[in-house]
Fold these 2 entries.
Entry 1:
Amino acid sequence: MAFSNERKISLNLEKISRFLNGFLVILMVFFGLAGFLWNTGWYWLAGSVLILNILNGYYLYIQKQHALLANFGVLALFRYLVESIGPEFRQYLYSSDTEEKPFNRMERADVYKQAKNSEKSSAFGSLLEFDNKALKLKHSFYPIDPKKLHPFHLCFGEERQLKQSYTINKAIMIGGMSYGALGRKAIRALSAGAKKAGIPLNTGEGGYPKYHLMDGADLIFQMGTAKFGVRNEDGSFNPDLLEKISRLEQVKMIEIKFSQGAKPGKGGLLPKEKITQEIAELRAIPMGKDVISPAGHTECYSAESTVQFLRKIQEVSLLPTGIKFCLGSTKELGQMFLEMKKQNIYPDYVAIDGSEGGTGAAPKTFMDDLGYPLFPALEKITSLMEEHKIRDKFKLVTSGKLISAGKQMMALCMGASAIYTARGFMLALGCIQALRCNNNTCPVGITTHSEKLQYGLDIEEKSERVKNYALNLDYHHYEMLAAMGEVKFLDLSRDNLIFPSSH
Ligand SMILES: Cc1cc2nc3c(=O)[nH]c(=O)nc-3n(C[C@H](O)[C@H](O)[C@H](O)COP(=O)(O)O)c2cc1C
């Protein structure tokens, strides 16, 4: 049946296209004659249709790249037009509130509401499926009086008794997004919002954090595999540059990024055309040459060398130093833990990014098919830490679509001590999930450097939204903690979860 429908549609298209091709020629002749006989104004129309005919001829008889254009001529352009505006049509007209990906409309609307401080309750009932065997939180018969709850407190670097340890008082931090992936105004709105909310902001791997520094937020400086901002011209690590950045008052922690969920094990190339004077300065790279981001840190080719590199960064920075990665081989992670024990060197935190994580740009197959998703990754890493008896050696931070307070609480129950969210804060900035982060055309001015597109992004207004979102998440964390009958965030454990198999 489906086959005969397809066939009917293609036969019709063929007829329509043949008709259109003939019609365009007749129309051109008609307009030409009209111009000759009645009024020269008709020549304009004849000229326009002539252009269409030339285009049609080119599509039908000359170009070879597009079969559809070769078969149907200009008629096929309608298909391209409809295909290009299809996502918008589906998003606004046809998709239900719980359908879109990676975040459905309901999830996005929830962030928007929190960012705008509007509407604190919903009516009638949840829109989620309750037979889907999702993870849930357990509440208690005996909710805690909010006044008795212990404030959230997490000190990075306390295990090493660092002089410059860093304490956060809310469970959320803004995940790494570089200047490069994000435009100047988005970075400034995030940084100003982070400052107002009293939460730190990860710089991403874009090099010297010029714009992140402008509005006073506490920063976690990230060093990626290309070591932007802390490299020599040949891409090797430059300790003097890291030392300089580490001494900046606002820089509170250093993060060595090994991989991220959306593209684990993938390097990249920054084409020379994209290297402006400013980018060259911030990233410490030369102009006029392509720059390669290796898939991994060149200094790290084994567990031993990786732990040695970590020690070096800790010694240079004197700051709490974490490592970020998406979990792949658990065997390698076990070897790494053994090596940490052997050298007695531990990171101050490990940031686990689930494979569902976001990115400015990555190959689709890396986004879809590599790495552990967040919750299984948390399960694996916490049990490996317990197996190696190193549970108390470092903190666990985590990220991967954790944009609601409920999901964040679940991650805390699974063993995380704090949460990063990147896209949650993008949504707070007004991201409409146009999925154009990789081509400089973000319609709301977030992942673009176009001054025109950034025009609508008001730093002051959006920083308020960032602040509101963070404070509302924090408020909901406490509310849920009380409902779950726990006094301290640190007391949360897997016992507070209802696992799918126990439904
Ligand atoms: C636009 C964009 C840029 C990103 N840039 C970086 C980066 O520079 N370094 C990094 O480690 N992760 C980067 N990420 C990944 C996020 O930090 C985060 O790990 C991931 O998106 C998962 O968190 P989320 O689901 O809350 O967004 C980026 C993500 C996005 C959406």
Entry 2:
Amino acid sequence: MRWYEKFDEWAAEQLPEMTVLKDEPLSRHCSFRIGGNARRMAFPRTAEELTRAVMFAREQGGAPLLLGNGTNVLFPDEELERLVVATDELTDIKCQGEVLTAQCGVTLARLAVCARSHALTGLEFAHGIPGSVGGAVVMNAGAYGGEIKDVLVGAELMTEDGTVRFFPVEELALGYRRSLLSDRPECAVLSATFRLSQGDEAEIRGRMEELMARRMASQPLEYPSAGSTFKRPEGAFAGTLIDRAGLKGLRFGGAVVSEKHAGFVINTGGATSADVKELIRQIQQRVQQESGILLETEVRMITEEE
Ligand SMILES: Cc1cc2nc3c(=O)[nH]c(=O)nc-3n(C[C@H](O)[C@H](O)[C@H](O)COP(=O)(O)OP(=O)(O)OC[C@H]3O[C@@H](n4cnc5c(N)ncnc54)[C@H](O)[C@@H]3O)c2cc1C
């Protein structure tokens, strides 16, 4: 029996309420709108269901992949022989004074709006980042001078052996677009706790609107993408280096270097994963020739390996 046949039997018996999709197109679940089918995709409704599904699939060789909002991933064009575990249904938020605790599937937009409704300041920077709380902890997402690290108290993680423990922020090794989970991809973020400060609701709203306007003016939000394709190299900006190398508008298949923001590779229609990877390769090569700097991708390339 294949891992997914065993998973189907187990899930039907043990977690009959959990949605499991067969051969689900991953292009539906990522902001790039690219990707082949996932052999199986599960939608646990509780942290316990998530933990059990991940552990069972791992034991059977299903190499589970946790997925948040899919805004920083590039899936392969081929079938992905893994269990993709969506976190969309884990959406509780609790507010106690200046402390917010959110499950991994809560979007940053919703979390920031929740903070604003309690006149709590600190998450304005995150309002326009299209990811989930889980993905934001994994990536230490940040924008306009703020990052998750600044407001995070800690996160509840499921570790490799299935145990669940609260990790204070110091243990999460958050750095520029990385975390402990970058080295330990078998862990899952179940929830995260943020400490904010009392502020003024109108000011918070004003700051969010200002940042959203800046984002809309500078980013090609009308096209599918995964945001900034590359990490910011030391002492430079990827977009500026790409622009200086004359690469705005460079195309491979349906993948194009945005004219609006050279740091974004966009899908102008029908781009494949192979198109994006080839365009990334060309950008890296040309930028290295021009500036001597090798750009490192920020987008996570999803493969069969965990
Ligand atoms: C238009 C656009 C603008 C963007 N702007 C910004 C920006 O300003 N700043 C910024 O930092 N990023 C930005 N991004 C990138 C992206 O939104 C962030 O990296 C975000 O944190 C990813 O969250 P996600 O839920 O979409 O993660 P996903 O893309 O779903 O996953 C990213 C990685 O995290 C893992 N993961 C996700 N959830 C969990 C979990 N619960 N447990 C364990 N692992 C998990 C995945 O396996 C994957 O390796 C932008 C993206 C787009 C499309």
